[in-house]
């Protein structure tokens, strides 16, 4: 739970939550990204969390996996 609280703090600004993508924060937080043979995008976060985006999920993730 502490890792999630720290992660959500990275997405907050003085005025509230971030409203646009910031590559500087993304690069600080994401350790590695892997694309599996099953077309899953696996994000390895610096604090040890792992997020998996499956094909058919958010349109941006699907578009990204189709380019790889």
Low-pLDDT windows of residues: 1-5
Secondary structure tally, helices: 3
What gross morphology would you assign? Answer: extended
| Structural domain tally | 1
Order of helices and strands: HEEHEEEH
Strand content: 25-35%
Structural category is: alpha+beta
Rg for CA atoms: 13 Å
What's the N-to-C terminus distance?
33 Å
Strand order of the largest sheet: 3-4-5
Report the mean per-residue pLDDT as an integer. Answer: 74
Multimerization state: single chain
Main features:
single chain, 68 residues, alpha+beta, 3 helices, 37% helix, 28% strand, extended
Structure overview:
The structure is a single chain. With 68 residues, the protein is α+β, with helices and mostly antiparallel strands. The protein has one domain. 37% of the residues lie in helices and 28% in strands. The protein has three helices and five strands. The strands form two sheets. A three-stranded antiparallel sheet has the order 3-4-5. A two-stranded antiparallel ribbon has the order 1-2. β1 and β2 form a beta hairpin. The N and C termini lie far apart (33 Å). The N terminus is likely disordered.
């Amino acid at each position: 739970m502490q890792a999630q609280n720290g992660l959500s703090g990275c997405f907050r600004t003085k005025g509230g939550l971030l409203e646009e993508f910031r590559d500087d924060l993304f690069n600080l937080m994401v350790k590695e990204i892997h694309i599996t043979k099953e077309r899953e995008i696996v994000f390895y976060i610096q604090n040890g969390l792992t997020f998996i985006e499956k094909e058919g999920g958010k349109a941006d993730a699907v578009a990204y996996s189709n380019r790889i």
